[in-house]
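Quick sanity check, GTPase Obg:
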Amino acid sequence: MFSDKVKVIIRSGKGGDGHVSFRREKFVANGGPDGGDGGKGGDLIFQVDEGLNTLGDFRYNKKYSAGNGETGKKRNQHGKNGEDLILKVPRGTLIRDATSGKIIADMSGENTRKIILEGGRGGLGNQHFATATMQAPNYAQPGKAAKEIEVILELKLIADVGLAGFPNVGKSTFLSRVTNAKPKIANYHFTTLVPNLGVVDLDGSKGFIIADIPGLIEGASEGLGLGYQFLRHIERTKVIVHMIDAASTEGRDPIDDIKKINLELSKYNSDLTKKPQIIAANKIDVLTEEEQKEILDKIKKEFSHENLQVYPISAVTGSGLKELLYAIKDTLDKNETPDLIYEQEFFPEIELNNETETGHTVTVDKDGVFVIEGPQIEKMLGYTNLEAEKGFLFFQNFLKEKGILDELKEAGINDGDTVRMYGWEFDYYD
């Protein structure tokens, strides 16, 4: 099933914890520390797959996690690194932070592979903490935490030409005649439920890609009808071709249709109407020569101030298709613009670190106990052996470096007062 917008949770792998161990060998009375380092957590990676044109695979699984690093082992053995997780997406997929809507990556152009979340660093084993005064450190470093974020995946098709028109004007028939696409064709509204991409091959000239945007209706930019769901797919196109029913077979006014579609495009994104436009007047096969001239003259006169080219065609008989296609190619060549690639606005390695690894609070509860909390505090407690004198001094120095001892003084702490941190309680003495 076609899907062009999904919300999922992605998570990198946690780093493996460092190991605490000591050499225990025959004839070695007091072996030194030999705890190995933890393995690095796996990265969460997005990669373009040219064979995909939908985000449908993400509709059934809403959470994706890379592998965690293994804990270090004794005898200085390094824990195994966690496996990377590679998520494959169609070219043109935008990855946004779900909370802010900011762009993390645009999987377009040369950006075919992107590490979105790096795995946590493995923790150091106790062998790294041995010093001349602390020859038997009884603590190791925990692995760095995994990063997790909810993202929106949004597909914006990459095509040179956007084919815009109201339902049932012949866009699908046209696409099936001039490209390798095989859209469903029938005589009822909203036949096209998904955007169709097709490649036009021209003799003696480089071809181009056309995207058939499913039927727009008046009010689409406000969310009415199906067209709103697919307006995003016209944003990357370089030329817009208006497909109109010149014969008014269903009583529609083709001139009014062009104006209404341009209004919807401008409401959605004002830049869309600044793109070069061409009018393809379809269904001329049901008109007499006199009727053709009358309606074409009327259209040309109406849009003369906008310098819009009008090409009479019949998607059914093939009349005028060659002329239209070469006109599109000529317009593309004269209006060479770089591919639209969206800049990164959200940097997980910065934003998530700020959220998860920094900051602390010093408060006083109703019993007069001074409470210290914060992610770094909790982490440090996790890999510090507070029951050992060296470990306690190590942790106290950490509190001093972070300015937490000064904050306790500012909060009015006195000798003998109680300090609580995640289940640990201490008596304070300056």
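Posting the structure with no commentary besides this: The CA atoms of residues 165 and 261 lie 7 Å apart.
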